[in-house]
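Suppose you are handed a protein chain with no further information: no name, no annotation, nothing but its sequence. What can you learn? This example shows the usual starting point.
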Amino acid sequence: MATAYMVLKQVPRARNQLKRVAKSPWTIQDAEDLEKSWLLLADIYIQSGKYDMAGELLKKCLQYNKSCCKAYEYTGFIYEKEQSYKDAANSYENAWKYGNKNNPVIGYKLAFNYMKAKRFVDAIDICHHVLSTHPNYPKIRKDILEKARQSIRV
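A reasonable first move is to predict its three-dimensional structure. Written in structure tokens, the prediction is:
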């Protein structure tokens, strides 16, 4: 229901539906639906700048599913907005690992946060991995790889 409201651009109605669902207790039968609703509500909170409320939902999501790639990605985004690049890199690292090192966007964000955390060699390694699997992703070469190499030389 909440997803339909989101598609119809009725975010307040979706948020109200999701708040009700978020209060329900976790059971194995409802686990997948609860996880989806927690992630959707966290996304709504992130879009409205309520990072603390989103963080609580993401912790709840990771408590029951330690391999939830999307929860780690959102957590990394929150840390990145708070300019905590080491924590963001750790979260994106988990998202990268649990996403089978496949998503070039997560790879880009991971390399970017490695670079911001002054882990230039790790950033270069991630760039090489992304470029080997997605050669048509030149943005990472220009934005991160060249800057990280330049930082190592200095």
